[in-house]
Design goal:
single chain, 314 residues, alpha/beta, two-stranded antiparallel ribbon, 9 helices
């Protein structure tokens, strides 16, 4: 079976479906929302053949790659895959908690080499490259309450816009700076460059290939096999001529706290046109290795439900 590029797959769920779930959260709290989520997640698990296969293949790859350090006692099966889907549902719940003020700064543990306090002191902004591992919304929500620097988040799917529009419908005070994009063109680049010069930050994920230019990729080993990573985020970082950071925020299953990893990657990423791929290798390798390390520690918080190692040209 030939599977489509992740961006060409029809998104499941709707704006009003999201609103209904959020209203359940608003009036019934966690217990009612979990009650509603359980059959919804089970439905998507049973009817979503491709995401289910991707989930199981990913969990088994982590188990095989980690060997004796595997987070699983035995090779993962359908129960672990269902739990993977369930964690995706709780991921949405955590987003809401963060934006309505139910996650405090005391619940977040700084594990990286840089703190948001450090960013606040710098005159220039920068670019934060995250992933679909963990929950960036928790980090952004808490940062927005304490710090003055705006974070401009680039999103490439309508689902992200729908979720945040529904969240504002439930809580009008939510202030989420999303920029819906289909392509990173010159106009957008100039806008972001201006904002960074004003001390703002740009947040983009680095673990999915381009929506409009799926062939613009570079290979890097990830969990023991070459995977395609998008060139776009790194080219954007180079053009913006600003500091680059990695940003990950994951919920620690042992104590319920959030582990925040904000790591400085470089002061400025320089990618000469003629040797772009060679120049990119060191920072991409660092990003991939950090992603790999965190994935093995928090495997159920990987929310890429497609074949991550499939080349877009296949």
């Amino acid at each position: 079976m030939v599977e489509k590029h992740w961006a060409k797959k029809k998104e499941r769920g709707s704006y009003w479906g999201i609103v209904i779930v959020l209203r359940a959260y608003q009036y019934g709290g966690h217990w009612l929302m979990r009650l509603i989520l359980a059959p919804v997640i089970t439905y998507f698990f049973l009817t979503g053949g491709a995401p289910r296969r991707a989930s199981l293949a990913f969990l088994r790859r982590v188990h095989s790659f980690a060997a004796e350090q595997s987070p699983f006692a035995a090779e993962p099966g359908w129960r672990q895959s269902w739990y993977h889907f369930w964690q995706f549902g709780l991921h949405a719940l955590a987003k809401i908690d963060a934006w309505v003020g139910k996650v405090s700064k005391n619940q977040v543990r700084n594990c990286g080499d840089t703190h948001f306090d450090d960013l606040e002191k710098q005159p220039q902004g920068g670019i934060l490259i995250g992933s679909h591992l963990g929950n960036l919304e928790v980090a952004r929500a808490l940062a927005s309450k304490k710090y003055t620097r705006r974070m401009n988040v680039l999103v490439f799917t309508q689902h992200a816009q729908s979720f945040n529009r529904a969240l504002k419908n439930v809580n009008p005070k939510v202030d989420i700076d999303l920029i819906q994009v289909t392509d990173i063109d010159m106009g957008l680049t100039m806008l972001l460059k201006e904002r960074i010069e004003q001390g703002e930050f740009v947040v983009i994920v680095g673990d999915r290939t381009s929506v409009t230019q799926p062939g613009q990729t570079i290979e890097q080993d990830f969990l023991g096999k070459p995977a395609s990573f998008a060139l776009g985020p790194w080219i954007l970082a180079s053009v913006l001529e600003c500091p680059v950071y990695f940003l990950f925020c994951l919920k620690n299953p042992d104590d319920g706290h959030y582990d925040l990893y904000l790591n400085h990657a470089c002061d400025q990423l320089r990618l000469p046109r003629k040797s772009r791929r060679e120049a990119l290798q060191p920072v991409l390798k660092a990003y991939s290795e950090m992603l790999e390390e965190l994935v093995m520690r928090y495997p159920y918080q990987w929310f890429n439900f497609f074949d991550f190692w499939k080349k877009d040209s296949q």
